[in-house]
Structures are given as C-alpha cells and as structure tokens.
Design brief:
The chain has three domains: 51 residues, lambda repressor-like DNA-binding domains (434 Repressor (Amino-terminal Domain), Orthogonal Bundle); 130 residues, Rossmann fold (3-Layer(aba) Sandwich), CATH 3.40.50.2300; 144 residues, Rossmann fold. The chain contains 13 helices and twelve strands. The N and C termini lie far apart (83 Å). Helix 10 links the parallel strand 6 and strand 7. Helices cover 42% and strands 16% of the residues. Helix 5 packs across helix 13. It has a six-stranded parallel sheet, with helices on both faces. It has a six-stranded mixed sheet with strand order 7-6-8-9-10-12, sandwiched between helices. By secondary structure, it is of the alpha/beta class. Keywords: DNA-binding, Transcription, Transcription regulation. It comes from Ornithinibacillus caprae. This is Substrate-binding domain-containing protein. Pfam families: LacI, Peripla_BP_3.
Length: 341
C-alpha cells in the first residue's frame, strides 16, 4: 500500500503539516523532529507527492498558460511560439512547470479559467492575447490569481502585462520610408477587429498624414496574420491601375505572402515596390529577397513575463506594465537606391 503524508505523520507522532515542513525544509522545526521524520521517511521509502511538497509553502509551482479569446496565430505562429519558449525557459529556471489550457471544449461547456486555476492550485497564469476575449479571461484578470498578459492590457489587482509598443511599430516604418522619399505606401493589417492590428493601423495612418504621404482606400487591406491572407491582400492591391511604392504588413507571415504575389505578377522587389513585415521571424532571413521587418524582441518579452509573474506570485512587486521598443531591421526587400533620391 502506498504511504501518504498522514501515515508518516502518524508514525512520527507529529502533524501532517510538520512532515510537509520537514520535506520542504521550511518553518521552525526542532532538529530532533527533523531527524525523526527523515528517519521514518528513509525507513519506509516514502516518496513525497506533489501535494505534500506544496502543503507547507501553499504553492504548487505550476503556471497556467492560456491562449485567450480568438487567437488566429496560436501555437503554430512563430511569434507566439518564440515568446512562449522564452517564457518557458525562464520560468523553468525559476522552478515552475507549465500547464497549458485548451479553450475549445472549455468554451462550449461555459466553464471558467478561474475555476480551473483553483482546481489545479496554480500559482499564476500567463495569458497570450487573442481577439474577442471571452468574459472568463476578464474574470481571471480581476481575481486573486497573479496574471501576466502578453499583448493584452490587464488591470486586475494582481495582474501585469508586457507588450511591444505597437504605436512605434508603424511609426518606425513610415518615418524610414518618408526619409527615403517613398511617399506612396499600402497597408496589410490583421482582422479588422484585431486590437493590435488596429493600433498599428491607426499609427500608420496618423504618421502618413503627418508627413503628407499618400495611401488609398484600395491600398488598405486585411488578412488573418498568415501567409495566404497576405498573398490574397497583395493581389487585391495589384488589381488597381496604380501600385504603391511600398507595402507594410503587420506580420511577417502576411509579408511573405505579399512577396509571393508580387513575384507571380512579375513585380520586382525592391526595385518596383518595397516590402516590410513585422515580428522578425526566422523565415525573414531566408526569403527571396530577405524580408525587412520590425523586430519584436520575443526573447525579452518572454523573459519579462516570467520574472514579472514570479514577482507577483511572491509579492515582490506591484502590478505594472512594460512596453518593449521595436527595432526596424532592414534587409533586401526594402533596399533604397540612393541614386534615385
């Protein structure tokens, strides 16, 4: 029969809490009691269970990973994958394991994230933001569970968030093009209801107007962050009599789709049109031509999320937000011929 922590406590004539404190090396326990409990553990070959280890500390060392709402990108998108990998490595070094939540059956059953966090005794949650966030996410944000969001502005009593400064993403693109005498620019955004895409779109239009640059209604198209939608959006732009000097897509995947459409139509990049994406995924380096992009520091975002959540769990910091600056990375798809300026 498998022994429990209560069995060890009974044999040692102490409480289960005392046994747990000896196992976890916490609390003010006499050396005599420590030696007695350890001797019984050794004699019986008792293996502490997960719950026994967490009894004294009141911590499970488990973090919930939630892909909230409508995430078109989810795990197979390189940007989110890289952020989560960075987070996973950092929280692993801090002593946590990750429990991934699926929101498919959960949404149909109208369960909530908070109830599942309590059920699994999670110490905290990382929330990867999609669009059309479900009410369950907001309820978790407003709860006692420490949470850190990526690309979602949480405001709960134990919530923080980290995001790229999405206003600067479009600002850097438009400013660079303006300074190189490129004034006719198209825009390929994510879904029209996408919060992040709309921030970038608003900043794009504002800075285009600020510099007196030209865009047209037919040059503003939308996709779903993936390559095929960028291909289709670029084809819609090319249907019209005039084409822009450059196109900015709010994800590298859509920008790669745009490159494919331009190549099929015989439009030269960068000679006839410049292309800039966003994210700086690995594929940018190997496309033909290599893709200029706005780098989101995925490694930094993941590490920040890990340490911010760790601090919230341990009461070492108050809720806060961090905006990570993007970086324009110029490659062949946006080469400027200075002799034409």
């Amino acid at each position: 029969m498998k022994l429990t922590i209560k069995d060890i406590a009974k044999l040692a004539n102490v409480s289960p809490g005392t046994v747990s404190k000896v196992i976890n090396k916490t609390g003010n326990i006499s050396q005599q009691t420590i030696e007695k409990v350890n001797a019984i553990i050794e004699e019986t070959g008792y293996q502490p269970t997960f719950s026994a280890k967490s009894l004294a500390t009141k911590k499970s060392n488990l973090i919930g990973l939630i892909y909230a709402g409508n995430i078109n990108a989810e795990m197979n998108h390189p940007f989110f994958n890289d952020v989560v990998n960075s987070f996973k490595n950092a929280v692993g070094n801090l002593g946590y394991d990750i429990l991934v939540f699926s929101n498919n059956k959960f949404s149909r059953d109208k369960q909530d994230y908070l109830a599942r966090c309590v059920h699994f005794q999670l110490d905290g949650c990382l929330i990867i933001a999609g669009d059309r966030i479900e009410e369950a996410t907001h309820a978790l944000d407003q709860s006692h569970i420490p949470c850190v969001g990526v690309d979602i502005a949480l405001n709960g009593p134990k919530s923080s968030y980290v995001t790229t400064d999405n206003h600067k993403v479009a600002e850097q693109v438009v400013t660079h093009l303006y300074l190189n005498s490129i004034k006719e620019v198209a825009f390929i955004g994510g879904p029209e209801y996408s919060v992040v895409s709309n921030i970038r779109k608003e900043s794009f239009i504002r800075h285009m107007n600020l510099f007196g640059m030209n865009t047209k209604d037919e040059w503003v198209q939308h996709g779903d962050y993936f390559e095929e939608s960028g291909y289709q959006a670029m084809n819609r732009i090319l249907e019209h009599s005039s084409i822009p000097q450059a196109v900015f897509a709010v994800s590298d995947m859509m920008a790669l789709g745009a490159l494919r459409a331009l190549k099929e139509k015989g439009v030269r990049v960068p000679e006839d049109i410049k292309v800039i994406g966003c994210d700086d995924i690995e594929a940018c380096r190997y496309s033909d031509p290599s893709l200029a992009t706005v780098k989101q520091d995925k490694d930094k975002m993941g590490k920040l999320a890990a340490y911010m959540l760790h601090d919230l769990i341990n009461g070492a910091a108050d809720p806060n937000s961090v905006m990570v600056d993007p970086e324009l990375v110029l490659r062949d798809s946006c080469l400027i011929d200075t002799t034409e300026q």
